Amino acid sequence: MHISFALIALAAHIAALVRVLTYRKNGARHRHRVSWVAWALVAVSGGSAIELTLHAAEVGFFEAGTAVLLALFVFGARGNVARLLRSDEP
After folding, report:
1. What is the 3-state secondary structure (H, E, C) of the chain?
2. pLDDT category, 46, cuts 50, 70, 90?
3. In total, how many domains does the chain have?
4. Is 77 domain-assigned?
5. pLDDT band at 90 (very low <50, low <70, confident <90, very high)
6. Which Pfam family is one of those matched by this entry (predicted)?
7. Which string of b and e fits 48-82 if b means at least 16 CB within 10 Å?
8. Which of 22, 43, 74, 89 has minimal Cβ neighbours within 10 Å of its Cβ?
């Protein structure tokens, strides 16, 4: 059963990674801090995907759930990391 959690987490990390990498800014301005956060998100997702391929037996339910939630947030923001960081409160 752990291998199914590993496959779910691996798919979620790769999906979030690809979505951030394929983001098109369409006229949005470039922000250096946001680009560093996006770079860190890509690095962590890619590193997690590599780690999951090497140590798949160590994945639990909560780790897979965290990866899925991260992918859902990234897809909800359409890959726009600035939108993930923005708060709507005044």
Report:
1. CHHHHHHHHHHHHHHHHHHHHCCCCCCCCCCHHHHHHHHHHHHHHHHHHHHHHHCHHHCCHHHHHHHHHHHHHHHHCCCCHHHHHCCCCC
2. very high
3. 1
4. yes
5. low
6. Phage_holin_3_7
7. bbeebeeebeebeeebbeebbebbeebeebebbbb
8. 89
